[in-house]
Specification:
Blueprint (H helix, E strand, L loop, with lengths): L1 H9 L5 E3 L9 H13 L5 E5 L1 H4 L5 H10 L3 E6 L4 H11 L4 E4 L8 H6 L4 E2 L8 H7 L6 H21 L6 H9 L16 H13 L2 H4 L3
Parallel strand pairs: 1-2, 2-3, 3-4, 4-5
Helix pairs in contact: 2-4, 4-5, 7-8
């Protein structure tokens, strides 16, 4: 990971996103030391991606706060787990210095709580098909009008978010992009394509939102 991080830096990357090593489920202190070593190996900004359902291990909020204190180039934390209390711990523990982002999975429903806690936005899947709308949804709150706008947009876009997560990522979003006429291709085995009934439902949803017309495709 350090070799790849340095390679990215040497070839002009603006920053890197790091996860704990998947599958092996290391203890928390080992996660801390690993992520600290990666952060200290480069000068470019580093973001954490905490996705325990994919990599098996959670980055505890206390670990994230320690890393933020020890590594000045750690600038962001993307959370993809359902514990809102963990987000609150990170926000309070870092004094808001660490930019807090979340995924847009409807099963976790993190967008509104993240922004309510003072978070900075989302790093999302659904933005592949509605980038302008998801960018608008992801804006930090500065006023009550922002809250109302975000809530309205959330419910408006919820069917698209549900479709984007209706099969394991990136299977569903690739299917939606193909329906829109974009060259998304297919996933390699063992990931299967979406079943025909789900594909038809996606077609109807994309027609209902007029995404091809909206984005001139």
């Amino acid at each position: 990971t350090i070799e790849l991080a340095r390679y990215a830096q040497d070839h002009g990357a603006a920053g890197i996103v790091v996860v704990p090593p998947p599958y092996i489920n290391p203890p928390q202190e080992a996660v801390y030391e690993y992520l600290k070593a990666v952060c200290r190996s480069v000068e470019i900004p580093v973001a954490l991606y905490n996705n325990p359902s994919r990599v098996v291990v959670n980055i505890d909020p206390a670990t994230i706060v320690r890393l933020a204190d020890e590594c000045p180039n750690l600038v962001a934390d993307k959370e993809a787990q359902p514990n809102v209390g963990q987000l609150a711990y990170v926000m309070e523990g870092t004094g808001g210095r660490l930019r807090l982002l979340c995924c847009d999975s409807p099963a976790y429903s993190l967008i509104l709580p993240t922004l309510a806690l003072g978070g900075h936005g989302t790093a999302n899947v659904t933005g592949n098909v509605v980038p302008r709308e998801m960018a608008e949804l992801s804006k930090p709150w500065r006023s009550w009008e922002d809250v109302e706008r975000c809530r309205r947009l959330y419910f408006e876009l919820l069917p698209l978010m549900e479709a984007a997560y209706s099969a394991i990522n990136p299977v569903a979003i690739k299917a939606m992009l193909r329906i829109m006429g974009l060259p998304a291709g297919y996933c390699r085995p063992p990931l299967p394509d979406v079943p025909p009934d789900l594909f038809r439902a996606m077609e109807e949803l994309i027609d209902r939102f007029d995404l091809k017309g909206r984005y001139r495709l």
